[in-house]
Amino acid sequence: MPFSEEGPIFLQLAEQLEDAILSGAYPEETQIPSITEYSLLYKINPATALKGINLLVDAGLLYKKRGVGMFVVKGAQEQLAKRRQADFYRDYVLPLSREAQRLGLRKEELENLIERGLNEHED
Hints:
It is a single chain. The chain is mostly helical. Helices cover about 65% and strands about 5% of the residues. Helix 1 crosses helix 3 (about 45-60), helix 1 (about 10-25) crosses helix 4 and helix 2 (about 35-40) crosses helix 3 (about 45-60). The chain is elongated, with a radius of gyration of 19 Å.
């Protein structure tokens, strides 16, 4: 899980944890690695790891069992999927549809372009 130079590490950690929850790498009601494990594994400050994990606690995706650790909330995967779908619509679909209208693309042409993009991604 390398970190890029773009954006704070705690945000990148939180996003990577979200990806892991969404993919099922951390199933609901299972424990995630500890703050110490994250800080040692990725050579980051424990406060940075805690800050990233607390973002997911605040978002209602993780909860703490006192003396045991952090666990994925039941329903976290569905909650994440819904939020990311809404973000995807706002960040990608709306701008795409606006640009398609400016270019005068018909619905069928746009569908063909999307299909082409999906097929290129599969290769």
